[in-house]
Amino acid sequence: MSDHDYDSWKGLFPGTRGSTFPRACVGRQGTGIFRPAFPTGSAGGGNPLPGSWPGAGLFAAAPRFSLTLNDIGLVNAKFLCALLPRLSLPRAESFVVPLNSYLAKYRINTIQRIAAFMGQVAVESSEFCKLVESTYYRDAAHLRDTFPSAFKTAHAADYIKHPEKLANFVYAGKNGNGDEKSGDGWKYRGRGLMQLTFRNNYSAFAKDTGVDAVNHPELLEEPRMAVYSAAWFWNETHLNSYADRGNFKGLTLRINAKALVIMTVSTTGSAPWRC
């Protein structure tokens, strides 16, 4: 949701060429570790799970395990590690209970919905490794490309290697944030699996859930609240309906519109680091 977190509607799980994470590519054109799942009791030669929509093969990471229609809510750590190569098993385990709880709470409970959700949050959180937005930039040109409207007149060079100053500048006066001096840009920068951003969003989340995210936004940097805030935002913006229709472009527009026009992240080959 933050301005500099990139994605593409071709994304993680549409199964189209140019998928963000080729190793986790799914669907008919996918070439990664996933293949179509088969109903419980099938020997693997029956019909795949209903539909040929993008992401249909997400929940069968052979040969270690398979999630079918009867247990698709049972996300486990091995599944997360297979899906997200950078994610270590101990860290994956910290997300299992929150994911199963909040996916159920917000009815992200079909293969289409879970595939779409996991695809989006994996990109927004750098495969569950970054639960708070970094506004540390080393290069002025990159900074201008990321926030073009903010630097039409301001000098980007004045903000490189100054993450707090940058956040307070580029997010000032937006969606409930105060001016630069208020510090709201830094305080309410992106957090959680969906990178919830801006005071208004933190306030709405707090009001609906009782989590004091306004006074303690750092709570969203913990796995449970990182998942909770992401699933809450998904529900608030009615993204299940987009997933049901396979409308990945529309879904990404609701989460991070800039992602469609700026760039597509590519992580080919082995993951360079783990978390």
Describe, in plain words, how this protein is organized in 3D.
This protein is an all-alpha fold. Among the domains are: 139 residues, no CATH class; 48 residues, no CATH class.
Give a short overview:
The protein is built from 10 helices and no strands. The chain is mainly α. The two termini are 22 Å apart.
Helix percentage: 25-40%
- Please write the string of helix (H) and strand (E) elements: HHHHHHHHHH
- Class inferred from helices and paired strands: mainly alpha
Distance between the termini: 22 Å
Question: How many beta-strand segments?
Answer: 0
Provide the gyration radius in Å: 19 Å
Low-pLDDT ranges: 3-72, 262-270
Binned strand content: under 5%
The shape is globular
Describe the secondary-structure layout.
Blueprint lengths: L76 H7 L5 H17 L5 H14 L15 H7 L16 H8 L13 H4 L11 H11 L13 H14 L2 H7 L2 H9 L19
Looking at this protein, list some descriptive labels.
275 residues, mainly alpha, globular
